[in-house]
């Protein structure tokens, strides 16, 4: 893999989660463009720089020792990648102050470097939170590959920060450079809420939650077929999002024990708040993590999962396959993984390579609900 070379550092970087013969590198031309732009401004070691949505730590790791750098984003895997890449390049694993997107920022900041996220609601929420965190003379610079840069990103910068100017494209990357001006802080439209009829619950959704405005059709297909009569089973909702699968299951299974895990900090925050609203003080574990990577082997009886088929802009079944492997490892012998998936993804044959028995629980024209027994 090539090294990331910038005026600040030369780094050997890896993506998370790691896979053999990784075809993709852990940085792109938009990262290089941001670093070169910052270097042109000749920041001092006392310059406070905030990095937002640094996919694998390329930006923050490059700036260690050159400026005062903080990093915030909504991905547990991104935070893990930053820590691993610091160590990989001989830097202290805690050299960067890292904040989940669900936590308040600790400004003021002189420079803000933003990788434009796939979900523009996350960008909007981040810009609103930035408004009272900028030092006099600050600059906010957002970057993306041109093919992933919607016009709305510039509109959001102008609405919440100040006049924004688009740079020339370099190696198919572009910068949006915003100059903050004085304005009244905006009220955030997040979290959003929607209600379900069955079960009769209201669900709160922070800015970066998948299907924030309403229940996604895969989950809608899955809900009527969640396993019943679980007794005191240990159940995990893997990739829990706002927690709807676990909450619906828990309402049907009052003695079961639940663990909810997602790699999005905002999803975990939403799930924890939704659990408390629906189930009060009933015991639960809700955590941000790399799926079930930290789960004890053979410590679960049931895993519920609506797997994603993309990581940021990259589409594929790598993450789903990994979740299936994690579920198999975490389940007891005889335990079961229940999933919903698009018919065309062919999860039945993938699960059959890992599990003793795979059966179709239900199907719609678009989705299948499968049960895989270890």
Quick overview of this protein structure:
With 374 residues, the chain is an alpha/beta fold. 27% of the residues lie in helices and 28% in strands. It has two domains: 4-178, Vaccinia Virus protein VP39 (Rossmann fold, 3-Layer(aba) Sandwich); 192-373, Vaccinia Virus protein VP39 (Rossmann fold, 3-Layer(aba) Sandwich).
- Biggest beta-sheet profile: 7 strands, mixed
Structural class: alpha/beta
At CATH level 3, the topology of the largest domain is Rossmann fold
At CATH level 2, the architecture of the largest domain is 3-Layer(aba) Sandwich
Q: In CATH, what is the class of the largest domain?
A: Alpha Beta
Q: How much strand content do the residues show? A: 25-35%
| Rg estimate, integer Å | 22 Å
Helix fraction by DSSP (H/I, runs of at least 4): 25-40%
Function: Specifically methylates the guanine in position 1835 (m2G1835) of 23S rRNA.
Enzyme class: transferase
Organism: Pseudomonas frederiksbergensis
Family: Belongs to the methyltransferase superfamily. RlmG family.
């Amino acid at each position: 893999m090539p090294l990331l070379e910038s005026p600040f550092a030369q780094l050997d970087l890896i993506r998370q989660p790691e896979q053999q013969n990784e075809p993709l590198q852990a940085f792109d031309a938009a990262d290089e463009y941001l670093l070169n732009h910052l270097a042109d401004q000749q920041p001092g070691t006392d310059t406070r720089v905030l990095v937002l949505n640094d996919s694998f730590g390329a930006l923050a790791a490059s700036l260690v020792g050159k400026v005062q750098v903080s990093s915030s984003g909504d991905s547990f895997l991104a935070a893990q990648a930053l820590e691993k890449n610091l160590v990989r390049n001989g830097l202290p694993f805690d050299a960067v102050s890292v904040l989940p997107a669900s936590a308040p920022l600790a400004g003021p900041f002189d420079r803000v470097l933003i990788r434009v996220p796939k979900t523009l609601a996350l960008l909007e929420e981040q810009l609103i939170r930035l408004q009272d965190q900028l030092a006099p003379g600050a600059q906010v610079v957002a970057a993306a590959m041109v093919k992933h840069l919607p016009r709305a990103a510039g509109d959001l910068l102008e609405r919440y920060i100040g006049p924004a100017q688009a740079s020339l494209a370099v190696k198919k990357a572009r910068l949006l450079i915003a100059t903050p001006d004085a304005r009244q802080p905006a009220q955030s439209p997040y979290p959003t809420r929607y209600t379900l009829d069955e079960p009769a619950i209201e669900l709160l959704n922070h800015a970066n939650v998948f299907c924030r405005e309403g229940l996604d059709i895969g989950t809608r297909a899955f809900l009527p077929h969640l396993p019943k009569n679980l007794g005191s089973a240990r159940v995990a909702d893997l990739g829990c999002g706002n927690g709807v699968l676990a909450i619906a299951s828990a309402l049907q299974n009052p003695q079961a024990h639940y663990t909810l895990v997602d790699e999005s900090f905002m999803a975990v925050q939403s799930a924890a708040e939704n659990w408390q609203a629906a189930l009060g003080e009933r015991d639960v574990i809700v955590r941000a993590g790399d799926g079930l990577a930290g789960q004890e082997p053979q410590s679960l009886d049931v895993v519920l999962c609506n797997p994603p088929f993309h990581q940021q802009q990259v589409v594929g079944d790598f993450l789903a396959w990994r979740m299936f492997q994690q579920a198999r490892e975490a389940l007891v012998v005889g335990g079961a993984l229940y999933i919903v998936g698009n018919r065309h993804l062919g999860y039945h044959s993938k699960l059959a390579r890992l599990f003793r028995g795979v059966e179709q629980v239900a199907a719609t024209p678009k989705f299948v609900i499968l049960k895989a027994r270890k």
